[in-house]
Amino acid sequence: MNHVILVGRITDDFEKVEENGSKKVFFTIGIPKPFKNANGIYETDFIRCILWNGIADRACEYCKKGDMIGIRGRITNDCVVAENITFLSSYSFERKEV
Length: 98
What we know:
Layout: E1 4-10, E2 15-19, E3 22-36, E4 42-52, H1 53-62, E5 68-75, E6 80-87, E7 96-97
Parallel strand pairs: 4-6
Antiparallel strand pairs: 1-3, 1-5, 2-3, 3-4, 5-6, 6-7
């Protein structure tokens, strides 16, 4: 089974690509590790993600750099393909799912 759930912050602006009628959005989320390294610093993992078509459009409409999001998807060789995204930023009064 290839299933992943990630929660982190969007680290950069969306990179939009359209080819053959399909829309893709690439972005990176930063996920802090829950422990400190030997120097007493929390390290962060940076995970490259991709969204397709309708979910890509909605994410571009509602999300921006710095927003906290949750992703449910699958891992490929070079990125995580997000199949569902939940907007978790504090400015949002209600939980929104795409």
